[in-house]
Please model this.
Amino acid sequence: MAIYPPPKPRPRPSISPPKPRPRPSISPPKPRFKPSLAPPMPRPLEFAGAAQQRVDAGQQPPMAPLSMAPPAMPMGFAEAAQLQETASLESDFERSPTFIGAGEMPEEASSIVNDMGFSPEDWTTYKDALSVIESAGKYNVVGGSGDHYDGRYQFGRDAKTDAARQLGVADPGHDASAREAFRNDPTMQENFLAGFAKANHRYLMRNPAYRNASPQRKLEILGYAHNQGMRGANEWLNTGKVGADGFGTKGTKYTESIAAAFRNRLDAPSTDASS
Model:
C-alpha cells in the first residue's frame, strides 16, 4: 500500500485590515458675524439754536430721548372702588337740592345742637348729607326695609321712641295715622333728629375715640350711628368692624357722605360781600 505525503497547505492571501479612506478635514465653522447688541450711545442734546439751524437746512431735528421712568403701577381694585364710592357720594351731594327752610332749625332742635357742642353750620351740613342718602331731602317719604321708616331722615319705631325720650315728649307712635302725621310735620322731624342724635351722642361720649374727636368727626360718627345704632357705632370705633342695614348699605357710607359734604362746603367759593 502506497503512502502519500500530506498535502501542503494552500497559500492564502494576507487579510490585513483596509487602510482608512482619507476624509477631508472637518473643522468647526467660524462663528458668523453678529452686530453688537450694546445700546447705541445717546446723541448729545442740541441747543435750541442748533436745532433750529438743522430745521432751516432741511434736516430732521433729533428726536427727544425716550423716558426710562417705570410705568405707574395699576390701581388696586379696593382702591379704585373706594375712589369711585367717594366720588359718587360727592356728586350726589352736589346734585342735591338746597334746603333753605330745613336749614333754619326749630328752637328746640337748636338748643339741643348747641348743648352737644355743634355749630348751626356744621349741623346743617350733617343733616343735609343724611337726607341725601335717606330721602333725597323730602319730608313725606316712606321707605326703608318693609317701608317701615318715615320722613326726611327715615325714622323707625325705635328711633322715634329714643328721640321722644330725649325731648321729654310723648312717644308719637308708629301706626298708620301717627306715621302720616309725622311725615307731614317737618318741624317735628327736625326736633326728633336732634333728639335722636343726642341719645347717640350721650352714649358714645363714654368712648374716648368719640369723646376726643373734633366736632366734624363726631358728626361723621353720628352718621354711622344713624344707620347702625349707638351700639353698632361703638363697636365700629372699638374694632373697625363695619355693619350694614337690611339693604346692605354700610354705616361707613354715612360717614363718608358727611365727610364729603364738609369738604364741599370748605371748597365752595365765599359769598362774603367784602371778598
Observations:
- Residues 42-48, 64-71, 89-103 have pLDDT under 50 and may be disordered.
- Residues 57 and 63 are 16 Å apart (CA to CA).
- The two ends are 161 Å apart (CA to CA).
